[in-house]
Amino acid sequence: MTAKPLIILGCAILFTSPAMAKLPEPVKAILNAALEGGDDAEIKTAFKLIKATNPDDLAEIESLESEYKAAYEVKLAEEAKTKAAEEEAKLANAGFFDNWSGNGELGAFRSSGNSSNTGLTAGVKLTKEGKKWRYNFRAVADFQRTDGVTTKEQYLAAIEPNYKINDRLFAYGLGQYERDRFQGFSARYSVSGGLGYQVIDTEKTQLAVKAGPAYRQTNFITGGSQSSLAGLAALDFAWQLSPNLKLTETAAAYIESANTTLSSETAIEAKLSTSLSARLSYLIDYDSNPPLGAVGTDTLTRITLVYGF
Length: 309
Fold this sequence. Notes:
Blueprint: H1 3-10, H2 18-21, H3 25-37, H4 40-53, H5 58-93, E1 100-112, E2 118-129, E3 133-146, E4 149-164, E5 169-180, E6 185-201, E7 205-220, E8 225-242, E9 245-256, E10 260-271, E11 276-287, E12 297-308
Antiparallel strand pairs: 1-2, 1-12, 2-3, 3-4, 4-5, 5-6, 6-7, 7-8, 8-9, 9-10, 10-11, 11-12
């Protein structure tokens, strides 16, 4: 329902109101013209004008204005309720491939630690919001090849379904795959499940934390593999510094009996247009017990262009 039909329907009662009948014909003509036009700002201006120019009829005009405001608020509330019901039905009936949104990024990186290189980076983030379920998917790849030799090869893919228990509390599941030969493993699989909580959820700031048990399997490039139970603690933070500037922080800690891995990525994103942004991020990966021949700390600085869709 558009604004004009909404206002006309909301104030239809005013045309037959006793207060309207008592007004002089010129005043009725001004007010009727404004009401039929259906623009709320013009109607308010008309009331202001006729109150200022017809002090003898102030009581009737103010009574009519009160009726208009009440009818208009009722119609706005009805429209909001209808819209909310339509959105809820849309979410409830959406298929798995509906209502996805996200962004893709492409740019360059600079690494230090087990490799010191500059290369290309690409990634994608997707989110699907449902009535009770939310799905997050993330994939990123960093790669460099010089003179026929691969000098950087790092991949990560993760999917995380969330079940919304209430407005703040949620249950999560996580499946993650990583590969980084320069950190000493050809594949690392992580599976986790637990509870999360939306600590802050405002228009400008969001902070969510989650924790739960995890199972990890690491396949080493030197051969062999290692499986273990772990505990996972993680957070996601976003702060809209200004309409065009956003700060984010994601961090995760896997705590195992023989090894602890920490990951922290801090990023600042500047909007260039409606869909395009520039992003600068700094990633730290720490491994308390790295494979033989590898160092424990890697850093990666990325500069990318991000396209939202």
